[in-house]
């Protein structure tokens, strides 16, 4: 269970980072496409220099190491306690693990 929790945690954190990178990449592409659509005058090389400056890798790197560390994992709080308890009872197996035996549905 601990190993599965860690794998799920790493998976969710990786997708959060991937989502942030893809959003930042889309914004940069939109900026370059807007600037690239300008009518070409004698200053065609000038906007390209500005675009190259905007795509600097230093703008995407986090400067503080503390901002990269996660103090609390969101996965542990995302699970409903009642759901966790009920699924733990299902894991026992046999007739005790049936859903209707655990829900407490009584007469009406």
Key features?
single chain, 108 residues, mainly alpha, 5 helices, rod-shaped
Low-confidence regions? 39-43
Query: Residue share in helices?
Result: 55-70%
Shape: rod-shaped
Mean pLDDT: 65
Discrete helix count: 5
**Overall number of domains:** 2
Quantity of strands, as a count: 0
Percentage beta strand: under 5%
> H/E order of the elements?
HHHHH
Distance between the termini: 37 Å
Main sheet characteristics = none
* Rg over alpha carbons: 26 Å
Structural class: mainly alpha
What report would you give on this structure?
The protein is mainly alpha-helical and 108 residues long. It folds into two domains: 1-70; 72-108, no CATH class. The protein is built from five helices and no strands. It has helices spanning 2-36, 45-54, 74-78, 81-90, 99-103. Helix 1 packs antiparallel against helix 2. The radius of gyration is 26 Å and the shape is rod-shaped. Residues 39-43 have low confidence and may be disordered. InterPro entries: Condensin_barren_su2. Keywords: Cell cycle, Cell division, Chromosome, Cytoplasm, DNA condensation, Mitosis. Residues 28-42 have a biased composition (Acidic residues). Pfam families: Cnd2 (PF05786).
């Amino acid at each position: 269970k601990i190993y599965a929790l860690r794998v799920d945690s790493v998976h969710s954190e990786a997708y959060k980072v991937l989502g942030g990178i893809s959003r930042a990449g889309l914004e940069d592409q939109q900026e370059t496409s807007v600037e690239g659509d300008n009518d070409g005058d004698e200053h065609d090389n000038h906007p390209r220099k500005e675009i190259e400056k905007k795509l600097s890798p230093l703008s995407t790197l986090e400067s503080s190491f503390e901002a990269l560390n996660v103090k609390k994992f969101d996965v542990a709080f995302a699970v409903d306690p009642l759901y966790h308890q009920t699924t733990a009872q299902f894991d026992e197996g046999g007739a005790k693990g049936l859903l209707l035996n655990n829900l407490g549905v009584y007469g009406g």
